[in-house]
Write a structure and sequence with these properties.
- By secondary structure, the chain is an alpha+beta fold.
- The protein has three domains: 13-123, no CATH class; 126-167, no CATH class; 169-222, no CATH class.
- The chain is built from four helices and eleven strands; from the N terminus they run H-H-E-E-E-E-H-E-E-H-E-E-E-E-E.
- It has a four-stranded antiparallel beta sheet, covered by helices on one side. A three-stranded antiparallel beta sheet has the order 9-10-11, with no helix packed on it.
- Strand 2 (57-60) and strand 3 form a beta hairpin.
């Protein structure tokens, strides 16, 4: 998607997104226009998160419920059947990148640029950022969440946080070492509990107390 820069002076990221979207409508086949309009809306509603490497990205669905990973391909169900493989999420990432380039290159020095050599940045400097550490698939990892607004930052923070491996289940304090090594919550009276088949993640004790009543231990405690 070739972009002609300098045709007009753009001062906001929204202006740049609309400008690039208009160019894309003129460049791409009409079969993609519907996907392109929805992709533009995703970018304008700040549903696109771009990784530090500029290649890995995630896009939040229009209903705000699901994140799709975009890295050359998209994990959504529409990607395999979309025209030329361009689903709205993949198009949204490309619009986001191109808009950042256009905005940076059309701003004069002193308004987002310091030197011409800095023109290869793909997005404006974020106002909010945080580094998160943890493991991803068992590998120690540090990821950064950024956002131009507090709302965007919260969305990106949740998306980055969801990439980390979930913490291992912990037994209540004072429980025996047995069961903890296996990550199984342990009843302080009768040892490792049993996971509920109806409510995964909930554990209970199947043993009886001294008075023959069933143990009431549950994890997590109600």
């Amino acid at each position: 998607m070739d972009l002609t820069l300098g045709e007009e002076r753009l001062t906001t990221f929204r202006d740049a997104v609309l400008y690039v979207s208009e160019l894309a409508h003129a460049k791409l086949d009409k079969s993609l226009h519907g996907h392109l309009e929805r992709a533009t809306a995703l970018v304008l509603h700040r549903h696109v998160w771009l990784g530090e490497d500029g290649r890995h990205a995630q896009v939040l669905s229009s209903d705000g419920q699901t994140w799709y990973r975009v890295n050359g391909n998209c994990t959504c169900l529409d990607a395999p059947r979309a025209p030329q493989g361009y689903c709205k999420h993949k198009l949204a990432v490309q619009l986001y990148k191109r808009a950042g380039e256009v905005l940076h290159r059309t701003l004069p020095l002193g308004e987002g640029r310091s030197t011409p050599a800095a023109a290869d940045n793909t997005c404006p400097e974020a106002l909010f950022s945080a580094c998160l550490r943890g493991t991803v698939r068992g590998i120690d990892t540090q990821l950064t969440a950024r956002g131009q607004t507090l709302e965007e930052f919260k969305i990106h923070f949740d998306a980055v946080h969801a990439l980390f491996d979930p913490p291992a289940a912990r037994a209540p304090e004072g429980t025996p070492a047995q069961g903890q090594a296996q990550g199984t919550p342990t009843c302080p009276h009768h040892g490792p509990g049993k996971e509920s088949t109806k409510a995964p993640g909930t554990w209970y004790c199947t043993k009886r107390m001294a008075d023959q009543s069933y143990c009431t231990w549950r994890y997590p405690a109600k």
